[in-house]
Amino acid sequence: MKQSILAFILFVAIAANAQSDKYAAAMQKNLVLLDSAKTTLDLENASNAFIRVGDAEKTQWLPYYYAALAQTRIGWMDKKVDADKLAEKTKAIVAKAEAIENNAELCTIDNMIATQQMLVDPQTRWQTYGVQASAALKKAKELDPNNPRIYYLEAMNVFGTPEQFGGGKAKAKPIFQKAVDLYKTFEVKPLYPDWGKKEAEDMLAKCE
Fold first, then answer.
1. What gap in Å lies between CA 69 and CA 163, rounded to an integer?
2. Which residues contact 2 (CB under 8 A, 6 or more apart)?
3. CA distances from 17 to 13, 165, 190 (A)
4. How many CB atoms are closer than 10 A to CB 200?
5. How far, in Å, CA of 54 to CA of 26, rounded?
6. SS3 sequence, the chain?
7. What is the CA angle 131-134-136, rounded to 5?
8. What is the pLDDT along the chain (208 residues), one digit of tens a residue?
9. 19: number of CA atoms within 13 Å, CB side?
10. What domains, with CATH codes, occur in the chain?
11. Is 166 exposed, middle or buried (0-12, 13-18, 19+ CB in 10 A)?
């Protein structure tokens, strides 16, 4: 009886390890697709691929995170895209991830969604979407105050805000500096987000 139990435990362990290896391989493959995307179609394909992994795994938030990240990159790449429709689609993906885990990385996605909606017409949309974008970063800081992507995105928002409204290069510079400093010590786990370091460094240089 004891041998049967041990055999069963070993079988479960082997099966779990095989499933983990399969998940990691699928994620690595899709990360290559995301990082090499050159067009909105490439990004859409990468997003769909991550969604398939997420739907199959059911307990992993990262596939949905990357699927949503791909959608935000469509928004940055295609200035003619309907930001509100894209936001609705991306929020639905984020909701799947948040049902599994609520964390700062997902808040950065919420920030980018709201920022893209705000940029459609900053003067009329700031009070709605600008506030939402700021709230997302505030929540992110509460969840993980040492995440450098929070400060990179915050600095980008300040950089793009006119000086008369409290923005501009001078105000953004120390925030970019904080992001760059945090990137130097931020521990990146396998398959976890690692974007933003070069962008933060480049933007800091623009503030000199």
1. 29
2. none
3. 6, 54, 16
4. 26
5. 10
6. CHHHHHHHHHHHHHHHHHHHHHHHHHHHHHHHHHHCCCCHHHHHHHHHHHHHHHHHHCCCCHHHHHHHHHHHHHHHHCCCCCHHHHHHHHHHHHHHHHCCCCCHHHHHHHHHHHHHHHCCCHHHHHHHHHHHHHHHHHHHHHHCCCCHHHHHHHHHHHHCCCHHHCCCHHHHHHHHHHHHHHHHHCCCCCCCCCCCHHHHHHHHHHCC
7. 110
8. 444 443 333 333 333 344 588 999 999 999 999 999 999 999 999 999 999 999 999 999 999 999 999 999 999 999 999 999 999 999 999 999 999 999 999 999 999 999 999 999 999 999 999 999 999 999 999 999 999 999 999 999 999 999 998 899 999 999 999 999 999 999 989 999 999 999 999 999 999 8
9. 12
10. 11-140 (1.25.40), 146-208 (no CATH)
11. exposed
The length of the chain is 208
Instruction: Read off the tokens for 109.
Output: 């996605």
